[in-house]
Amino acid sequence: MSETYRFDPTILREYDIRGIVGDTLSADDARAVGRSFGTILRESGGSTVCVGFDGRLSSPELEAALIDGLRRCGLEVWRVGLGPTPMLYFATFTLRAGGGVMVTGSHNPPHYNGFKMMLGKQAFYGEAIQRIGKIAAAGAFAEGAPGKVIDRPVLDAYVDRLARDYRGAEGRSLSVAWDAGNGAAGIAMKQLAGRLPGNHFLLNEAVDGTFPAHHPDPTVPENLKQLQRTVAEKGCDLGIAFDGDGDRIGVIDGRGRILWGDQLMVLLAREVLAERPGATIIADVKASQVLFDEIERAGGKPLMYRTGHSLIKSKMAESGAPLAGEMSGHIFFADRYYGFDDALYAAVRLLDLLSRSDQSLAELRDGLPKVVNTPELRFPCAEDRKFAVIAEVKQRLRDRGADFSDIDGVRVRTADGWWLLRASNTQNVLVARCEARDQEGLDRLKNDVVTQLEQSGIEPPQF
């Protein structure tokens, strides 16, 4: 590799680095990421870095090249092994490393891979990721005597930490189906389930980077069908699913119904607020109004914030919030935990509260206020138009005196409910969602969205 290096510009994303292996992402890219991130870490005074990797077929090669780049900056590299992304976060926190890098393609198809990073205990995103490209292009890499590489496996310690916050040992026994989707959470999931009381049925726990059973993204209903069948066949109280790198959770109740991220957050927020009255609870702009209302009803302070796991983590640290969550299934606990998104930990906290509740998950779900809403709708919009469209819509809303928030796109409040339109930070798509008290109101909200999109020359989604 030459002393200057240029990445394919499409791989430097808002929250991570991600590309198609053999096309936009290679071992040379991984080495350059190591040298550039290592340079930033050295500038911050760091001398050690944790490295983990997921179960994708390309991950071992990328991990080796990444480590080579980090070593060339004079850093001591601690290899924490194969596991979910939250295990890498856990290692970076508990081993007190200067930073951490996870080789992972997250929930993307098998031919994708990439890197998620943290500097000290902070999220690493946005302009910081763009700086990696600038350092590489300038060849402005830190130099030093090559650092050591030390194996420091943390899987057992990580599972111990997850299990510690299960306090329902004296509560009712639960029957649980688990689905790792052959992703990187599988090994930890198997160990964790073995530590918890109750009956546990494991699906796709073997790590397999080809994802033979189904795609590991629990926000897509199709990917939960196997779990739903198992819950029905085994008479389980609930089913829990994880994405490819274990930082997002999917949940279904004993009747096979999906609990979306905002519904799950209502239950978790009530539990946290019972012990921490008055605390701030954060959710992203895509979340149901039910969540914000229920946080307030439970004595908390709801805070609506921008979508994006790195943005949420930073806002949590700034506000001191003990809990945050996104519609996408990222759940962040700073209550008795570290403040990062960890789906296995969220599962422990959910099982803990259910074991001590006199209601089933299905009954708790039925007790939520009834609304009608659309799922999160994602539809194409050219990269050079998506933010401009939002600006145009915002101006028209201002002109008519509409009631809206512009913290992330536009979330418009009407007598019927609310609708959202925002630009994705990571893809050339727009995102829409609507929620109302009844179907007639929902239809009017949908029409509002369609009208706004048509006025900006955008083909509206099929609601």
Task: Note down, in words, how this protein is organized.
With 463 residues, the chain is an alpha/beta fold. The chain has three domains: 9-153, Alpha-D-Glucose-1,6-Bisphosphate, Chain A, domain 3 (3-Layer(aba) Sandwich); 158-366, Alpha-D-Glucose-1,6-Bisphosphate, Chain A, domain 3 (3-Layer(aba) Sandwich), CATH 3.40.120.10; 372-455, 2-Layer Sandwich (TATA-Binding Protein). 36% of the residues lie in helices and 22% in strands. The protein has helices at residues 27-43, 59-71, 85-94, 127-138, 155-164, 186-195, 225-234, 261-275, 289-297, 309-319, 343-355, 361-366, 386-399, 439-455; strands at 17-20, 48-53, 76-82, 99-103, 112-119, 122-123, 149-151, 175-179, 199-203, 238-242, 249-253, 258-259, 280-284, 301-305, 323-325, 331-333, 372-373, 377-380, 403-405, 410-413, 417-423, 429-436. Strands 1, 2, 3, 4, 5, 6 and 7 form a seven-stranded mixed sheet that branches. Strands 17, 18, 19, 20, 21 and 22 form a six-stranded antiparallel sheet that branches. A hairpin with a 4-residue loop joins strand 19 and strand 20 (410-413). Helix 1 (27-43) runs parallel beside helix 2 (59-71). The longest helix is centred in the N-terminal third of the chain and has 17 residues, at 27-43. The model has no long low-confidence stretch (mean pLDDT 96).
